[in-house]
From TrEMBL:
Protein name (record): Nickel import system ATP-binding protein NikD
Gene3D superfamilies, per the entry: P-loop containing nucleotide triphosphate hydrolases
Keywords annotated in UniProt: ATP-binding, Cell membrane, Ion transport, Membrane, Nickel, Nickel transport, Nucleotide-binding, Translocase, Transport
EC numbers: 7.2.2.11
Amino acid sequence: MEPLLQIRDIQASFPSAEGRLRALNGVSLDLYQGRIFGLIGETGSGKSVLGLSIPGLLPDSAEVSGSIRFKGQELLKLHRTRLRQLRGSEIAFIPQNPATSLNPVLTIGYQLKEAIARHRSRSSRSGKSLTEQAAELLDSLHMPEPERKLRSYPFQLSGGMKQRVLAAIGMCGHPSLVIADEPTKGLDALVRAQTVEMMRSVVRQTGAAMLVITHDLHVAEALCDEIGVMYGGRIVEQGPVGELFRQPKHPYTQGLLGSMPGRGMVPIPGAAYNPADPGAGCAFVTRCRHRRAECESAVPELYPVTDPGMSTLAGTVGPASADPVRSGFEAAATAKVRCFLYAPDSRTEQDLPQRLAE
Ligand SMILES: Nc1ncnc2c1ncn2[C@@H]1O[C@H](COP(=O)(O)OP(=O)(O)OP(=O)(O)O)[C@@H](O)[C@H]1O
Ligand code: NI
């Protein structure tokens, strides 16, 4: 399958009093239609900058290089006007804070109908009124009493409902790519679960590709097909969701998952990545228990982990995913890890599994 979006070696930096802040240090990523890709990682790892770079929403001060190809178009070279058109139609960006993204003085119905009207091809085809279409859209996102909600103002809606309104606005243009930054932030457990369900149904109904940025590892596990773990402006591990959560391979991923409630809640010791001083080697080197001399001076590649012996490292092995779509995808994708422990010449070392499980 051809990827819908191909990101290659994206670098992004910002000017600051301390010199350039290196937010992204070479990220490559493929997104496929009908698939949800999750980005996880500590604060400051570059998740939002990556998400914003795709629809061209980084501030002008940002210096961005690399390539972002969407349906054959190079987005980094696209004219502003064309990018804005794409954002309103084929690429939907659901921002971090739904509360501030809706206009407080306009009704939900007004804002949703305005979005539908902007995509006239849809309204002229169906012959339905804008109000009917708006209610249908909310209904398809499992919004209770959709007609009544159209007459409400944003403050009258819960966080989860506002999230659904924003998703509905984003879906008006029939996007083939949806980017959501922290879609469950500040939501209680029930609304969080509803949001996960809503987002999965958006992907099922539209066949869109989705990029989800989240701090909530449980949401990532429940929602995504594939996961990229970011640290220091790079993806340090990438793989099918089940495998990644069952058998985290990168020392950073193991630390990150170990900080989850239910998995020990042990924070990773040491200071997080400093974008003003990225260093010459692996960004995690100062915090890593497995560091070697070479980790200080060179950045490891993303090594595919294909040796079956390599997938029985630390972590308990659970049953394979019961979802046939997911397990099919898992079988197709391979985990990749940016760590010298996984370099081909390290794989011959007999003691590796033991060293990692220490
Ligand atoms: N507009 C900006 N100007 C200057 N620096 C920025 C800007 N946006 C992001 N950065 C810096 O880039 C780095 C990556 O930030 P980013 O917001 O992508 O992190 P994140 O992984 O999304 O973190 P969080 O989980 O807290 O949202 C940080 O060091 C941040 O301070
Ligand atoms: Ni962020």
